[in-house]
Amino acid sequence: MKAQRRVIDERRPRPVRKPRPAPSELNLDFVRELRQVVATGLSARRQDDEVTGRPAMSPEDQRQYAWQLISDALASEAHDRVQAGEQPLEMADEDRIAQAVYDALFGPLGPVLGQLLEDASITDIHANGFDRVWVIRADGSKEPGPAIAASDAEMTELIRNAAARAGLGERRFDAGSPQLDLRLPDGSRVSAVRELSARPVLSIRRHRFMRVTLADLRQAGTVDVGLEEFLRAGVLADKNFIISGATGVGKTTLLRAMADGIPANERILTIENTLELGLDQFPDVHSDVVAFEAREPNTEGEGAVTMAELVRRSLRHAPDRVIVGEVLGDEIVPMLNALSQGNAGSICTIHANSSEGVFRRIATYAVQSPEHLDLVATNQLIAGAIDYVVFMSSSYEEGPAGRYRHRFVSSVREVVDADDRLVVSNEIFRPGPDGRAVPGSPARSLDDVIAAGFDESLFDRAQGWWDE
Q1: Rounded CA gap, 174 and 362, in Å?
Q2: Residue 55 gets which letter from DSSP?
Q3: Closest residue by Cα to residue 327 from 388, 397, 243, 447
Q4: pLDDT tens digits, residue range 48-101?
Q5: Are 383 and 414 in contact (CB under 8 A)?
């Protein structure tokens, strides 16, 4: 065995290059150079295994061996620097380069984006071409970011590789399929475009809280204690919720927090255009979760599976709850049908500019759907399917560390009935002086929610919310 190992070590290529000064920023040329060295070493090891009849390395073994090769390559670099009278790399720089080389080999989007995604303070990354990059942090600040590749062509190749690795099935990103949506292993959402703009465009939306509870959101100021208990009891009472708001206000985070309150023994089916919710990643919270992801057509234009089809399909799998990550179009009609036919306790999100505006958005989707529902039919369907509409807002505030973006629930609307023209609703939580939700109009019916554990004494009766 030792003799075989010596053979492998002798065949392992050593980096041959001129020593260079330690980079203040990640040196992509150096990373590519080391990546080639390590890739060649991995290839040599695979060939040795095949020649000697050893079992092929598992994916985990390959990753471990890659770390060893990276360590050896950096040790050789340090030796070359000392021999040339140069200062070796600082330990922190070595660690950054080692991680970058590993990300270049195994990471879905290469070394630079891999490092940006390691920064917990970053919520969004936007690249308008390989070198025009912007990062947005949790406090709402926006700043230029580093080039994510050496050229637009390399950037496109990175995205294409990510499409092949991430998601439930391989997705295309080429001239025939110039748009891409996918979820990275860490839960980040990727949207990319090529051919439709002068340069390739990439946007990454990070979810900082994959596992979150309503108590966490109360501590963050998203809800107060009364609203926290109301939403928790509403989930336990099998009420159907639509969470609405603009982009980036925390709709998905609130959905995750509410879903955390679903009893552990219930069967949950999630339906998304691109996997994002990740409820199936925490079996200790919910052990019976099925995550469905829509599928794009293949190169022959066949094999597409839409979210509307997945909603219909989900009903054949005996779900206790159906959760639609984001309503985007014609899936609204089968979803409302499902909710009105006994699949209670479901949650979905939708883009809208007010809680009342949700009804207009649903009507727009319904009339554009294959069923072409008119307004009267849509309103009746809404009244029979939806119990509450939750609307989220955000504002910029000054804090000890400077200006930051605060996200919060500003409105909850109770669906009461419908007539020929509109959906009849009550805004039982309305925006207060600072925009945060406070008790509003009297609710028509809270018996189920109270029976599920909601303590009405959490609110100040003097505000009149509980008056008959």
Answers
A1: 33
A2: P
A3: 243
A4: 888 888 888 787 787 788 888 888 888 888 888 888 888 888 888 888 888 888
A5: no
Task: Name residue 262's amino acid.
Answer: I
Structure tokens given for 311 = 């909603």
Closest CA to 371 of 335, 347, 423, 323: 335
- Distance from the Cα of residue 24 to its chain's centroid: 31
Half-sphere exposure in the Cβ direction for 63 (13 Å, CA)? 9
| Pairing relationship of beta strands 388-399 and 189-193 according to DSSP bridges | unpaired
Rounded to whole angstroms, the Cα distance separating 310 from 317 reads 11
Per-chain mean pLDDT for the chain: 82
State the architecture of 214-463 in CATH terms. 3-Layer(aba) Sandwich (3.40)
pTM for this model (two decimals): 0.70
Burial class (CB in 10 A: 0-12, 13-18, 19+), 367: middle
What amino acid is encoded at 158 in this protein? L
Banded pLDDT at 184 (limits 50, 70, 90): confident
Residue 218, pLDDT score: 92
Q: How many residues does the chain have?
A: 468
Structure tokens at 212: 């979150």
266: which 2 tokens?
């219930």
Task: Please tell me the class of the 109-208 domain.
Answer: alpha beta
Contact 145, 128 (CB under 8 A): no
* Interior angle at CA 219, CA 213 and CA 220, nearest 5: 90
| Rounded Cα gap, residues 259 and 50, in angstroms | 49
DSSP string of 363-391, one letter each residue: HHHHHHSTT---HHHHHHHHHHH-SEEEE
CA–CA distance, 422 with 363 (Å, rounded to integer): 10
> Do residues 181 and 172 make contact, with C-beta atoms less than 8 angstroms apart?
no
Please, what is the end-to-end C-alpha distance for the chain in angstroms? 84
Residue entry with tokens 């991995």 = 42
Question: What does R_g of the chain's alpha carbons equal in angstroms?
Answer: 26
Other C-beta atoms closer than 10 Å to the C-beta of 451 total 11
pLDDT of residue 400: 59
CA atoms of 11 and 16, how far apart (whole Å): 14
